[in-house]
Amino acid sequence: MPEWLSTIESHTALDILGGFVGGILIATFGRYRARRQWERHHDVHQLNVSLNVFAEGYLKIRTVFERPLEHVLPNLHAREVLLAAAKRCTIDDPMLALTGDHHRFVLNYIVNATVEHFSLGDRKSVV
What we know:
Elements: H1 3-39, E1 46-55, E2 58-68, H2 69-72, H3 76-87, H4 103-115
Antiparallel strand pairs: 1-2
């Protein structure tokens, strides 16, 4: 076998092995981070829209949808405004208080995502 062919084969094998080991390390680290977030109940990048009714001595919760913030608020600044409002929430005052000039912008994104679950849409027949 020529020397140049064995050199290519050894580099290719090392590249494949390195990619395989790197992939395993990345997957293991991702699972570790996900597990730590789950254990800490730290899922702040998830938006949950629900209907909450206190009736007959019970709190009744109906979740409309739950999605990652990136899907509902594609704008980074809008996500930062919402997360800042969430950090100001307390046990005594759990409601989000969106202040400033951009609160309508953030709320519009959330309303648009919520409306998708209640609209039937129109079908157009093509003849």
